[in-house]
Design a protein that fits this description.
heterodimer, A: mainly alpha, B: 486 residues, alpha/beta, 11-stranded mixed sheet, 16 helices, globular
């Protein structure tokens, strides 16, 4: 993910195109969305995704021509309901099993960076 | 046919029951086939010879005791997104490169209870996002019919393995065509059951309202055996439906005379490849000879299937993939400034390009200000597609369509053009959107000798019709008997 001048140039050009209204997605939006998605993007990736997402979003424009007035949205293909069960204790994972894939643990908890400074 | 790895599960089951061959011998035949073809085909992420042979030994004990079940002793590959306890389940991604699940997926438990033999984890597009198995961080799988071509995706490894004898049967998953497309490209039979028919517990989620696990096999008889095993309610999956089913193998000799097949004009007008057209036309003739009637249908919302899918699936994926944050399992970045930075770098390092692209697309489409225009709109299109299919099934038993616009494309041909790649799924996606069952069956070959599949779609929980139709077709054709020369 190194920075080089070619990457930055590409990003600047794409960014200008975007702000001229020629693209559906701006650099600010890419930064905002990548922050929401907790993804650190390199300048090359930003340029590439801006272009590709722009193409994809333009393709989605075809949906505007379909009338969906009075159509209910579907969250899934089946009637959703909550299959409940009795609130009884059942076998579950042991602490060791739960920690087995931990990138960092102290034997009884997951160890993570401080959340609140 | 002299090798055990070339035989069907049904034939092998017969040989096992009569004591002519042992599960260990079958397993060793398949393991040796895996070893000789892996450098060229790369169907597997991980192969487990030790596990396979020990499972085969247990299967042989059951067979000796007379307690064997229908598929006891049969070697099976499972896609690398189904949790296999204690073994690496990577989903083709660096972010799960060393992840060992602490539990089995429900379908894996069923396979173990049946005393089948697990060979290993089949290669796949990363997190099941792809149509060619090229986005796997472990490298692509190559089509056994032409190793310069893709096997399709995302269950490319599962399909390729069955096609060339590296597995007798296999399991894949299908969200937008990921079983049916590789089945078509690899010349095998593959089915996506009705949404809710097969448990998703332990299937690593990509798009939860679209994902389904399904079987690959060399013919409809083997597929019916595997479908019998996995098609059932599971209380661990809250979207699993309580539905019984008859023994699918009891339907194999049924006549299809008097059944009606629908032909959606919105699909057929998009078909330009002459080989696919020829094979579909021939399929129609074969069905007509067996007394099947045909009707033309119009399902106008099919035209919007791809656009709606490539909003809904990335939206659901952006939510499902949010859990890969380096906290409890999976890759964690080594260098970071704070917690948020840890997330951002972990995910940047662990995810490949397609996964990142879909997370970006899904996050954008769900973000405030865009939710109505994209996700909600797509969800309404989904309703229209479902309604179109419902109306269609009032005048036919099942729908016949192509699986893919063309036979297998070359590795590298579409990977840099996301929309080109997405258009591969034009015929398969609407089936997932409506939650319907769909099957891909070998229908012939292109002039270059590449397999071409046909798709049959039926109404919810009507897999019995699909089994009958494909069985009738396979009685009259031999495409499913052909094997790649590799």
């Amino acid at each position: 993910m190194g920075l080089n001048s070619q990457s930055i140039d590409n990003l600047i050009v794409t960014s200008i195109l975007s702000s001229l209204g020629k693209m559906k997605i701006t650099l600010e939006q890419v930064d905002y969305v990548s922050a929401l998605g907790r993804l650190a993007l390199s300048p090359d990736e930003k340029t590439k995704f801006m272009g590709q997402l722009d193409d994809i979003l333009k393709y989605m424009d075809t949906l505007e021509s379909v009338s969906t007035d009075n159509v209910e949205p579907m969250a899934g293909p089946v009637e959703l309901f909550n299959p409940l069960r009795e609130d009884l204790v059942r076998p579950s994972l042991s602490v060791d099993q739960a920690l087995a894939n931990a990138p960092s643990s102290d034997g009884s908890s997951f160890v993570v960076p401080k959340i609140i400074e | 046919m002299s090798h055990l790895y070339e035989k069907t599960a049904s034939d092998l089951a017969g040989l096992l029951r009569s004591g002519k061959v042992s599960s260990v011998e079958i397993t060793e035949s398949v393991l040796s086939r895996i070893e000789s073809l892996e450098p060229a085909v790369h169907s597997y992420v991980n192969v487990y010879p030790d596990l396979a042979v020990s499972m085969a030994k247990k299967a042989d004990e059951d067979i000796r005791r007379g307690t064997a079940k229908a598929l006891t002793g049969i070697p099976v590959a499972i896609k690398d997104n189904m949790c296999l306890e204690g073994r690496k389940t990577t989903c083709g991604s660096r972010i799960l490169a060393n992840f060992r699940p602490p539990f089995d997926a429900s379908v894996v438990r069923l396979i173990k209870d049946e005393r089948m033999v697990i060979l290993g984890s089949a290669n796949m597009d990363e997190f099941a996002m792809g149509s060619s198995t090229e986005t796997s961080c472990w490298g692509p799988t190559h089509n056994p019919w032409d190793i310069e071509r893709t096997p399709g995706g995302s269950s490319g490894g599962s399909a390729a393995a069955v096609a060339c004898g590296q597995a007798i049967v296999s399991l894949g998953s299908d969200t937008g065509g990921s079983i049916r497309l590789p089945a078509s490209f690899c010349g095998v039979t593959g089915m996506k059951p009705t949404y809710g028919a097969v448990s998703r517990f332990g299937l690593v989620a990509y798009a939860s309202s679209l994902d389904q696990i399904g079987p690959f096999a060399r013919d409809i008889r083997d597929m019916s055996l595997l479908l019998n095993l996995i098609y059932r309610h599971d209380s661990l999956d809250s979207t699993s439906v309580e539905i019984g089913h008859s023994d699918f193998t009891s339907l194999l000799d049924n006549s299809v005379s008097g059944m009606t097949l629908g032909l959606p004009i919105e699909f057929f007008c998009k078909l330009t490849n002459e080989d696919v057209q020829k094979n579909l036309l021939e399929a129609r003739r074969i069905f007509e000879k067996q007394g099947v009637k045909f009707v033309d249908l119009s399902l106008p919302s099919l035209d919007y299937g791809i656009a709606a899918y490539y909003i809904i699936a990335p939206c659901e994926a952006s939510s499902n993939l949010a859990r890969y944050d380096g906290v409890k399992y999976g890759h964690r970045a080594e260098k970071f400034d704070n917690m948020i930075d840890m997330y951002c770098r972990t995910r940047a390092e662990g995810f490949g390009q397609e996964a990142k692209r879909r997370i970006m697309l899904g996050t954008y489409a769900l973000s405030s200000g865009y939710y109505d225009a994209y996700y909600l709109k797509a969800a309404k299109i989904r309703t229209l597609i479902t309604q179109d299919f419902k109306k269609a099934f009032e005048s036919c038993d099942a729908i016949l369509s192509p699986v893919a616009p063309a036979p297998a494309f070359k590795i590298g041909e579409k990977i840099d053009d996301p929309i080109e790649m997405y258009l591969t799924d034009v015929f398969t996606i609407p089936v997932n959107m409506a939650g319907l069952p769909g099957i891909s069956c070998p229908a012939g070959f292109s002039r270059d000798g590449l397999p071409i599949g046909m798709q049959l779609i039926s109404s919810h929980f009507q897999e019995s019709k699909l089994v009958q139709l494909v069985s009738a077709f396979q009685r009259e054709t031999d495409h499913h008997l052909k094997r790649p020369a590799i």
